[in-house]
Each structure stands twice: as structure tokens, then as C-alpha cells.
Amino acid sequence: MRGTIVTQPLSKGHVEKLARQLAMSDLTLPFWGCRKKMPMHRIVRLEGEGNYTLFHFADGSQLIVSLTLKKMESRLSSKVFVRPHKKNIINLLYLDGIHPDQQQLSVSLINGDRIEVSRRKASRFIKQVKGFQEDLLTLDTLEPMA
After folding, report:
1. I need a surface site. Which of 15, 41, 84, 86 has the fewest CB within 10 A?
2. How many Å apart are CA 37 and CA 113, to the nearest integer?
3. Could you say which residues form the signal peptide (predicted)?
């Protein structure tokens, strides 16, 4: 079973606890002439649309900002956010499943979204997921769930 990736959706309470343990800060986003702070751990995924980025949040809401996905990637926690495809960045806290196929690897998120993993990024993506899961196991053994 070595190297097997097991995905199990995390509860909202577990996500919040892990966000504290991982010291995930708020993300300040430009929004209609002002700035708005958004908790980073509530972002399920980011989708690039040209010079804009569409945020998909855990509560189902969405927000579009006038920053590129590349710019947003540099502001996110690399421990939790990975870029499986040039158009998407996903939050591993919301990973529901990994679906290997003969042609294409894809992942599903707890909000029902299904994202393709580019062939060039597939092996790195799998390594990132395995590393993240190992980190989660370490964090879970350090602090019991309340």
C-alpha cells in the first residue's frame, strides 16, 4: 500500500483546526476600489480567466478579482494550495477524490467541481498531495480533535 493516496473529505471544524495549525492568514483582495480580507482556508479553488481570477469559496459564493492567477499563486500558502493545471489552483483541504484515467488524471473537490491535472504536472501534483497528507497525519497526532 506504500504510495497510495487516500482522500477523505474533511469536516468544516477539521478544516478550521488545520488552518490554525498551518497558520493560514487572511488574504487581502482588491474589490471595487477597496480591499477586502478573506480567510485563506475558505477558498476551495481559484480559476484563471485571462487577467482575472475567479475565487470559489466553501460556502458556494464566488468573487472575481482583477489579478492574474500567477500573481495570486504567489500570495497563497504553498503548503495547502497546488496548481494542477494552468487554469486552476486548488486547496488540498477540500480535495474529495483523485481519479486516474488512461488518458487524464483528474481530481474532485468537495463542492462538486472536477479539475483536470495536466499531464506535465501530474507526477509533481501526486508528490504534493502525498506530502500534504503526511503533514496532516503529523498535525493530527500533535493535537487531538476537540
Report:
1. 86
2. 24
3. none
- Which domains are delineated in the chain? 12-141 (2.40.50.1020)
pLDDT at 10 exceeding the cut of 70 = no
Mean model confidence pLDDT for the chain: 83
Distances, alpha carbon 34 to alpha carbons 41, 71, 103, in Å: 21, 18, 44
Q: What is the mean pLDDT of residues 102-115?
A: 90
DSSP β-bridge partners for residue 131 = none
Say if residue 2's pLDDT is above 50: no
Q: Are 93 and 133 in contact (CB under 8 A)?
A: no
